[in-house]
# Entry
Amino acid sequence: MVISGLIPCMNTPIKESPAVNLWPSAEHALDYLRRADSIPHRVEGEATLIEFLPTDARRVLDLGSGGGRLLALAKSALPDAQFVGLDFSPTMLEALRQLFAAGSGVTIVAHDFEQKLPPMGQFDAVISCFAIHHVSHARKRTLYQEIFDVLTPKGIFCNLDHVASASVPLHAAFLQAISCENEDPSNKLLDLETQLAWLREIGYVDVDCHWKWRELALLAGVKPS
# Structure
């Protein structure tokens, strides 16, 4: 399941799982799409993310769009905005193209954000849901910088993601709460505090965790004017 993973204790040096990424696999992607609606408390996190989107946002980037769930919610909240949905899984890209037809105001970009983001212009908001935890910790840090660089002044970054528990028992309790038996080897989980500190170091303001349930958290920060 996409929201499970081996997690380091925050009181020990940060370690991450080996460089495994199963998302190019159609089987792995389809399995996630089948289970996506059953992730506990997901709707609460998504609703909180939507609350923070600027009502006057003209361009929004969704990183790791998957099947288009968050993108569709954002589009409903901002019907006049232009959207870019980015993903690299062939299965997810096909689902996105089926969901968002030509003329829908959504541009689909095929790109693996483990690599540097391609030129796409500036955005008033950058959003992501259960995606960034799949890249290495070093890439998380550089990606947060690249997101900052493409935001317009007062633009916001909202990342609803899977973070590391503070201890092994807490992680075990999380897995039990989501009825998950098998870890996803693609996960590379990092604690919340480290990521919030990175956002502040980069220059984001109003950095905070606006919602959290166990290992699921909404991190956000604003680019100053």
